[in-house]
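Data availability (excerpt). The following record was deposited with the supplementary files.
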Amino acid sequence: MPACAVSSLTPPVRVLILPGWQNSGPDHWQSRWECAHGYQRVEQHDWLRPLRGDWIARLEETLLGGEAPAVLVAHSLGCLQVAAWAAHSRNTHRVKAALLVAPPDAEREDLRQMLPGWTPIARAALPFPSVLVASSDDPYGSPGHASQLATQWGSRLHTIGPRGHINAESGLGDWPEGHALLQDLMKD
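Predicted structure:
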């Protein structure tokens, strides 16, 4: 949890933040949104050794432990978590929509070794609306990979140019453009 004064405002829709491997630090746009808007982070038992089954179970527990519907805001490995969860859960009706940012290509040899157990990537169409945001120079996933996942997941693809892994190092700050995408998803 980032060190911040969490807003006392309750968002009109429950928004769940799903960070990727190693969590999202205080300068990451996900942490900034959590602080500014009172969104809820789905905490993992082990951020350094992400086990797919554990991460899926944690998302399921969080969704069942609160009011539905929820909107998911996933970054990096969190995107693969959403797809894997949706492929196995009987509770996908609890999700209204998902913003999927910078999904990594976990099937790439170097990433497969860093993230064992995350392959094959779940590629079934998601049963809720989603937007996949991709960068043209993401070191963990090519634009072609992002486009392919967007097609397979049934997501609308939104490209933002050369912004790296769309994380704290990308210099996005509060990333208002991304938050506008989220707001649009919450309206539908």
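Summary of structural features: The chain has a mean pLDDT of 94.
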